[in-house]
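NADH dehydrogenase [ubiquinone] 1 alpha subcomplex assembly factor 3
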Amino acid sequence: MAQRGQGIVIRDAHFPGRAPVDAYGNGGFRFAKMSHRGSILSVPSGIYGWLPATVEELTIEAFERVFEEAGEIEVLLIGTGPDIRRVPPALREEFRARGIRADSMATGAAVRTYNVLLSEDRAVAAALLAVD
């Protein structure tokens, strides 16, 4: 809530929990009876709005929250948009060094796989680029 004189305060989008992704497309995602426009990052601490919109924007810095929670993540699914794209080699090496198995796939496949692994109570995280 904004205090008098500050105007509107925008906070980072964050859902504090794990939830399956109910739908994707039209530039966003639906989960936990909410919708989010843009990419999302789902880690053990919750689901966050995520800035990258293209594979080219997938940098080590973009995955900082994943690395902070690496001890609780076995598998990271990376949804690379409408098509399967490889993540940069330096990023793959960083995941490996932190003990995270990272798999890149089209966003639709990543959503489906994430939901299955989540239902099995696996230590899964997902970095999902929005698709139209």
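thats it. Residues 107-119 form the longest helix (13 residues). The two ends are 32 Å apart (CA to CA). bye
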